[in-house]
């Protein structure tokens, strides 16, 4: 069973899509949001949840005071579960569900400057693909934004783009949480830059 840990929706259960979705355990979510609350980056934040699955991470943020949440996933069962959970929690005015890949979403023109980004890719997402997503993400970040990447403990540290600087690492069983923030004095990689790089690789 997956449920919201705390906040206005605390204790409410969530629909979890069947298949390859790997929900973040309640223990890890509780530890993650305890850390984020301590940093003061959840209440009032604009949140992006990539590889959202059931939407548990983004909806936890909404329950704890985030002003807007965007849930992105490419799997149809996950998109359906996210929409069902948003409706069940009464968060239609706060949460938006986007059906598509993380990279595809980020290659669009930035429409929001996100304060908090939660990245929980499936284990089969390669380190190279994750690095590309993190590079594209930097064009969407607000100043002093916080990015959290959840990976298997056996996975290496993500390849951070110059615009992001690792600030912390926390391990919980088989899960590692990597924290990063906008690096001072670094220019983000723009969507145009990403398009030019893709063209050079063809």
Automatic annotation (TrEMBL):
GO terms for molecular function: 16S rRNA (guanine(966)-N(2))-methyltransferase activity. Keywords: Methyltransferase, Transferase. The keyword Methyltransferase applies. The keyword Methyltransferase applies. PROSITE patterns: N6_MTASE. Its EC number is 2.1.1.171. Residues 1-22, 182-202 are annotated as: Disordered. PANTHER family: METHYLTRANSFERASE. This is 16S rRNA (Guanine(966)-N(2))-methyltransferase RsmD. It comes from Oceanitalea stevensii.
